[in-house]
Design goal:
mainly alpha
């Protein structure tokens, strides 16, 4: 990681606690709900995206293994990953995912930041209005997954588009781990592309921030079942307003 002031490192640590919390609590959002705040501290997505990717691989893999073990021990054994949906989505997403990674590597940093903040502002409106994106046909499934893969390749914030498709195909108890399995494959591709392109994957930074993300992961893990059981619309609405405000600040910062 680049040289920063002590308070900036402290803020980054707190943001990664939040990152671990939303990722394990919601099953997505480790990048979507944290990247805009990180870019306000240091406006280079290639610094933070490798760290978020490494953390996602570690915590998503850990969560899936724990859930599978728990499920096998229970009397009513249920699969926690919908493998049919994993195969279906990845077959559509692999090629646009690679195209998105290429875009991240070749596009100017300021342009990438404008794209990221604009996408997050658009997502935030769906949460504020309480009208998340939904797919109701195979054609929309296909279009959403292609766009999600490209966006994920550039910035790891394609989650809401994948969720719009997943809601049609998977059961609530499969939701988080199925998404985690998809994220693991897509993120592994992204990290592999970073290595091939000789991009610094920020391994030391990822290890330094791992305990902070771990604190958030434990808190989010305990909250996950409550979010499934209760109406979380007010939580998403509040997140939407925070994301919208952060996106406007980020866009103003880049344009200025």
């Amino acid at each position: 990681m680049p040289e920063m002031a002590a308070y900036q490192y402290g803020l980054i640590a707190l943001i990664f606690v939040w990152s671990g919390f939303v990722r394990s609590g919601l099953g997505f959002g480790g990048a979507l709900f944290t990247l805009p705040f990180l870019l306000l501290i240091h406006n280079d997505p290639l610094i933070f995206l490798p760290i978020i990717s490494i953390h996602l691989l570690f915590f998503a893999g850990l969560t899936i293994i724990q859930a599978e073990r728990k499920s096998k021990k229970s009397s009513d054994h249920r699969n926690t990953v919908n493998w049919a949906f994993v195969r279906y989505s990845l077959l559509i997403m692999i090629i646009p995912k690679l195209a998105g990674v290429v875009g991240l590597l070749v596009l100017p940093t300021d342009l990438m930041n404008i794209i990221i903040f604009s996408l997050i502002a658009a997502y935030s409106l769906t949460y504020i209005l309480g009208k998340p994106m939904q797919s109701n046909s195979r054609l929309l499934d296909f279009l959403f997954l292609i766009v999600a893969a490209y966006v994920s390749g550039t910035s790891l914030i394609g989650g809401p588009l994948v969720i719009a498709v997943a809601l049609r195909h998977i059961k609530p108890h499969e939701f988080r781990n199925t998404l985690f399995m998809i994220w693991c494959v897509l993120v592994a591709i992204k990290l592999g592309a970073f290595v091939l392109a000789k991009v610094d994957i920020q391994l030391i930074g990822a290890l330094w921030l791992l305990p902070f993300a771990g604190i958030g992961h434990v808190i989010g893990h305990h909250l996950h079942s409550r979010l499934l059981e209760k109406d979380s619309r007010s939580f998403y609405k509040l997140l939407g307003w925070v994301l919208l405000a952060t996106s406007f600040v980020g866009l103003a910062q880049v344009i200025a």
